[in-house]
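Our collaborator T.R. sent over the components below with a one-line note: 'Predict the complex.' Nothing else. No constraints on interfaces, no templates requested, no preferences about which chain binds where. So this is a plain run: every listed entity goes in together, and whatever single assembly comes back becomes the starting point for the next discussion.
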Amino acid sequence: MAARSGVSSSVPSLPPPCPKSPPEYPDLYGKRRETAKVQMLEREIRFLEEELKSVESLQSASRYCKEVTDFVMANSDPLIPTSQKNRKSYRFWKWLCGLSCFNLSWICCCCYSWHSCHLKCPRSCKCSLCDCSSCKCYSCNCNSCLSCCTIPKWRCCSCPKSSCCRKISCSRNCCIFQFPSCTDCCCCGWKCCCPKCPKIRPCRNCTKTCCNPCCLLF
Amino acid sequence: MSVAELKERHAAATETMNNLRERLRQRRQQLLDTDVAGYASSHGRTPVTFGPTDLVCCRTLQGHTGKVYSLDWTPERNRIVSASQDGRLIVWNSLTSQKTHAIKLPCAWVMTCAFSPTSQSVACGGLDSMCSIFNLNSPTDRDGNLPVSKTLSGHKGYVSCCQYVPDEDIHIITSSGDRTCVLWDITTGLRTSVFGGEFQSGHTADVLSVSINGSNSRMFVSGSCDATARLWDTRAASRAVRTFHGHEGDVNTVKFFPDGNRFGTGSDDGTCRLFDIRTGHQLQVYYQQPSDNEVPHVTSIAFSISGRLLFAGYSNGDCYVWDTLLARVVLNLGSLQNSHDSRISCLGLSADGSALCTGSWDTNLKIWAFGGYRKVI
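Returned assembly:
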């Protein structure tokens, strides 16, 4: 219907439509997060206050430096031998160490350990070349340390033969002073990584020459 | 309380905390009347001296085709497990150099590995945020791979370090980029305890290393990118027993001292430090000014069995042997003949203390042992 002409409208014009603003929700996540941070800080403050109280009763550092020094001096270290023993066996090992291929002083023929071997063999040990007082088998009272000692470590623990029982007391041939031998020997997997290996003597298990320290000794 | 009021309270608490920390630092400084080097030298101790052939490389373990990131010795039997960027764990017989296992990992991005106390299993972890357990006696699958026997999942960040709790194959502790350490029950695969985290008092940045006390396996220390080390009691995970400040950069490595009452740290600030766990005292700083201006980061440390030697690997390829009592470098394995060609990323001592194994970014591991005869006064 057309508006009448000449007549001014007395109805106020409606504002343009616009979407409603979302209601103002409280920022609960932000508030809770901030509350958690404050609580953590206040807890940290309590810890620091406790620590400050405990520090008052602490002794000075020199007492604890003494503890460290005393502990270190009281304990032997295989990487730092403390004294010189048994010149005779030492000369033998020194000769072996002079070989261009090997520095064998780090292999004890009795316990096949890494430590320098300048010590006496246990009386039950068949090896007469070294003195292994730090070896556990030193305290062994049986006739043969081979059968019951937890050392030598090489015994059966790494024999590659599938038939090996891998027990310490195993008396199989593969496990008595014959392992490891040479690279291609079927009873072992020894690999000499020394390019200047003199290959001094034949391996017991095969005809190949080998520079393996166990082959040198037995 | 409004958010604005909470923020004001937060600021006030932060200032109070900083003031308390400063008071604590000053009080501790007053108690440091000497350090280990000062005490030992005043009591007539002279440094260990090594000749050029005294500590020698006895073995080079070759087989990895990527950077070696981690290694661990067995408690017995001289075997080593190593983890490499090539995505494999290798188990070595350190005496014969034989590889007894080569384990292809489901995730190649491995950062840590560990041998179980009984030597029956190995664990590893890395960027997959999980710790995987392999039983070395399990039969291999059709492809010849050792299957994962257990997966420990729950970390929300990379697994940086793992160590079995001594004397038991059941529990392992991991550290993570999610700022937490976790004690796991391997049998169930579940987390027994979580140390730190968002709403607990703990590290405020990535945790990079853990070391369990050999004398008291309920205690362990962790090192973090927040420049602190923290001591934890596994019976009380809600807060650290003590926080050790002093370093000025990421603490990359932590290792307990043999007596169980101290531990060492190595950091991006180029220093190693010795802390006392009962008092929090910093007993010694091990630092040598580099010849150039660039300070190398300490990547890994290990103590000799007596505690007299501290082995520290650095990001520039050096491997210093520190006399812990006199705080002097007595040898640099990195400069010896037949040493690594690149950074030494990990190192560890054999259980009997007679050999050191180092792992490097040159893909090799090397075994070092005493090759001479030395008298110490």
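Summary for T.R.: The mean pLDDT of chain B is 93.
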